[in-house]
Design brief:
Helices cover 0% and strands 44% of the residues. The protein has 124 residues and is an all-beta fold. Strand 4 and strand 5 form a beta hairpin.
Length: 124
């Protein structure tokens, strides 16, 4: 089945070859758990990553408890979770929706000192 013109790591059912095509345990070549071929990489199950990129180094940045982009968009999950578009904090230029240090959820849509909408969890 295999010739000597490329590298093969593993066995006939669980392998990675020198052409970048591979199938790994918990599946087979028809229903793989993990498969890499000329069409891309395929995974059944979960991906656990503490860091990395989706869409290259200028795409989405994966960091512990947050996903962000180089365009100023951030989704964070921490003690103060927030969705941020342009704004780094509540009241900064851009859109900010989240939980503040005061433990209240709030929102700000802010363009400049004269053009904004703020809700601090109680008052608009």
């Amino acid at each position: 089945m295999y010739d000597s013109d490329y590298l093969l790591i593993g066995t006939n059912s669980d392998f990675l070859n020198g052409f970048g095509i591979g199938y790994f345990p918990y599946g087979d070549s028809v229903n793989p758990y993990f498969k890499v071929d000329r069409d891309g990489a395929f995974l059944s199950g979960s991906i656990i990553a503490n860091a990395g990129y989706l869409g290259g180094s200028s795409g989405w940045i994966i960091d512990t408890n947050k996903i962000s982009s180089s365009y100023g968009i951030e989704f964070s999950n921490s003690t103060t979770p927030a969705i941020k578009i342009g704004a780094t904090n509540y009241g900064n230029k851009g859109i900010w929706i989240g939980k503040g240090l005061d433990n209240n959820f709030s929102m700000s849509l802010h363009n400049d000192i004269n053009n904004y909408l703020k809700w601090n969890g109680q008052n608009l």
